[in-house]
Amino acid sequence: MLHLVPEQDTAPQGPAPARAARRRRRQVAGGAIDPKQLITSLPDAVRKLHPRVMVRNPVMFVVEVGAVLTTLSAVLAPSVFAWLISGWLWLTVVFANLAEAVAEGRGKAQAESLRRTRGALVARRLRTWRVGIDRRDWDEQRVPAADLRPQDFVVVEAGGVVPGDGEVVEGVAAVDESAVTGESAPVIREAGGDRSGVTGGTTVLSDRIVVRITSRPGHTFLDRMIALVEGTTRQKTPNELALNILLACLTVIFILAVVSLQPMAAWAGASQTITVLVALLVTLIPTTIGALLSAIGIAGMDRLVQRNVLALSGRAVEAAGDVNTLLLDKTGTITLGDRQAASFVPVQGVTQELLADAAQLASLADETPEGRSVVALSQRYGIQHTDADFTHGRFVPFSAQTRMSGADFAFRDDFCRIRKGAGAAVTDWVLRRGGRVPAEAGWITDSIAAGGGTPLLVAVEDRGGARVLGAVHLKDVVKPGIAERFADLRAMGIKTVMITGDNPLTARAIAEEAGVDDFLAEATPEDKLARIRQEQAGGNLVAMTGDGTNDAPALAQADVGVAMNTGTSAAKEAGNMVDLDSNPTKLIEIVEVGKQLLITRGALTTFSICNDVAKYFAIVPAMFSGVAGYEGLEKLNIMGLHSSTSAIASAIVFNALVIVALIPLALRGVRYAPSSAHALLRRNLRVYGLGGLVAPFLGIKLIDLLIQFVPGI
Ligand SMILES: Nc1ncnc2c1ncn2[C@@H]1O[C@H](COP(=O)(O)OP(=O)(O)OP(=O)(O)O)[C@@H](O)[C@H]1O
Ligand SMILES: [K+]
Ligand SMILES: [Mg+2]
Q1: Interface pTM, i.e. ipTM
Q2: Given the CA of residue 421, which atom of ligand 1 is nearest to it?
Q3: Is the model's pTM score more than 0.90?
Q4: How far apart are CA 25 and CA 5, in angstroms?
Q5: How far, CA to CA in Å, does 654 sit from each of 163, 585, 649?
Q6: CA 371/CA 193 separation, integer angstroms
Q7: What is the mean pLDDT of each successive set of 10 residues along the chain, which is 713 residues long?
Q8: Per the UniProt record, which residue ranges are transmembrane (predicted)?
Q9: What positions carry a catalytic annotation?
C-alpha cells in the first residue's frame, strides 16, 4: 500500500508543523525545568493568590490566612521580625502557586501550537453521500470546519487538511498526522477496517477520501488535546482527593493544638504573639506536599504527553501504576494488522479459478482490507466481475458477531448465495442449509492456522445445494520486537492475555510467536467484555489495548483503556487513553509513568511530614526560652540557634525555600526502576524519610547563621 505515497511527501524534512511538534516534545523531554520558567510563571503564581483559587488547596489556604494575619499584626505593631515572618509567609504561598503554574505553563506552549494547527480549517462538505453514487454528481459546499456536525460527509483530496474527526467511508489515502502526533512518517487510512479513523488537522498526502464526521463542534480530538495539555479539564484523582482530605485533617488538628497552646503559655507567663503562633502553625502543617501535590499530578499527565499518550482521565494514569493484567487485541495490535490474502486453497474437485471466482463475488462489496485483498488476489486469475453481474443481489457485510461476509444474488439465471468467513461460522452456515462439510475443509483451515495465518472458508449454495469450495489464506505479521517487550511486562508482574476473534489454532500460533501468557480465541465483543469483568472480579486491575469497533465495550470497561490512534473512532471514544504512536507495548511506559506518579507523591508526602517534625525542634524551644519552669525545653534547642526570633524566622524561611527546591523533583518525578513494591517502599522511607528529618537541621542552622546579621533579629 505504501506505493500510494508520492516521493516528495516523504522527504525527511517533514512539513513545518511536524518539526515544530518534534521540537516541542524535545523541549519538555527529560522533564528538566528551565530556571526561566520560574520567572515567566511568576505572574500566574501571583494571580492564583485569589482566595477563590486558594480554598481548593486547604493547607496553602491556611498559610495565606496566616500571611494576612501576620501582615495586619506587623502593620499594627511594626517590627523587623513581624515583617520578616509575614513577608516569607507570602513567599511560601507564591512558591506553592509557582509549582502549579510552572507545571501548567509547560502545557501552554504545546496548546498554542495545537491551536495553530486547528486554525481556520475549511471543509468540502457533500450534500449527500451513498456507497456507489456517481461521483461527478456530487454536490460540494465549502463550509468552515467549525460548522461540521456528526454524520456530515466531507471529501478530502491530496494536499488537503482533514477538517474534523471522522471515519473514512470511501477510499484509501496516505495521511501525514505529524501536526497531531509529531511523527512525520505517513500512515495509511482506509475505509472499512480498523484503520479508518482520521483526526482533524492532519494532512492527506495522496488520493482522495470521503470522511463521515463523528465529532461535535468544539469536541474534536484537537480540542480535547488542547484542554488536556492546558490542564483546564484536569480533575483531582481519587487518590489525590483522599490525600488532600488527610492533609486537611492534619491541618485542623494542628490548628487546634496551636490555639490551645496559647492559654497554657499565658498561664506560664509566656503569652505568644499572633506572629509566633502563625509561624508555629505553618511549620507544623504539611506545607511541602500541600504545595507540590497539584504540580505532581499535572506533571504525570505531561510525562504521558511527552510519550505521545493522551490520558483523558487522571484516574486512569493512577490505575496504570497498579495494573497487573493486560488484555490485547490481536490484529493490528500484536500483528501489523494488514491481513492480506496470500493464496486460495481449494478442496478436492474444485479448481483454484472457481474458488477465486466465488471469493471475488463474496468480496466485491466487502470494504474491509481483507475483502479488498481477496479481490486483488482473485484478479490475478483474470477474474473481473462488475456490479452488472448482480441483477437482483444483496451484499452481506462482515460483522464481528457473524464472522462472515458475502452476497446473495441471481446470477446468470441461477440463484446463488456465497459466504466467506471464520471456519466455524461457515461450517455452521453450510450445515444449517443441509450441506455437508468434508473433513478436508478442516485440514485445510488447520494447516493455515497452525502457521499463524487466518483461514477464511468459502462456501456456496445454489441448485446443487450448499458446499464448501475451499479456503483463502490471509497472512499477517507479528510486530517486530514485541516478544522482548512482553518479557519486560512479565518482569513488572503484568500478565498478558491476547483476545481475538480468530480461531484457536491461529491464536495459539500468534500467541506463541508474540510470547503472551494466555489467549482467548473466537471472542465476540461480548466475550472480550466478559473476560475483563471476570479479571476485575478476581481483584485484578486490568488494562486493555485495542483498535477496533468490536474492542470498544472492553476498552470502556477496562481500568486503563488504551486505544490505538490508528483505530476506529468508536475505540478512541471508549478508551481513557489514546496512544498516538499506536504501539501496544506503550503500556510499559504508561505503567512506569503511573508508578512514578504514585511513588513521587508518596515520597514527597513522607519528606514533608518528617520535615515538619524537625522544624518543631527549632520553634518550640524558641517560644519558651527564658520562661521559668520550662528550662527543660532548652534541651530541645539541639541546633544551638542564635536567638528565639532568629530560630523562628529561620524555620519559616527554610519551610518556604524547601518548596522551591523540590519543584524540579515534583515535575520530573522520582527515579523509577522496576522492583517490588516492598523494596520501593523501603528505599523511599530511607531516602525521603531520613532526608526529610535531617535536611531541616542543616538548612535551618545555615539560615540561622546568616539571618542573625539582620538587625533587629
Ligand atoms: N472481511 C471478512 N469477511 C469474512 N470474514 C472475516 C472478514 N474479516 C475477518 N473475518 C473473520 O472473522 C474473524 C473475526 O474477525 P477479526 O479477526 O477482525 O476479530 P477481532 O475480534 O477484531 O480479532 P483480532 O484480535 O484478530 O482483531 C476472523 O478471524 C476471520 O475468520
Ligand atoms: K510545614
Ligand atoms: Mg480487531
Answers
A1: 0.93
A2: 5
A3: no
A4: 26
A5: 53, 44, 9
A6: 10
A7: 29 40 44 76 93 93 97 94 96 96 81 76 84 61 89 92 91 88 82 85 91 87 79 74 92 91 79 90 94 90 86 85 90 84 95 94 86 93 77 81 88 81 95 94 94 94 92 91 87 89 92 93 90 92 89 92 86 89 84 90 92 80 68 67 84 94 91 72 86 90 87 75
A8: 57-75, 81-99, 241-262, 274-298, 647-667, 687-707
A9: 329
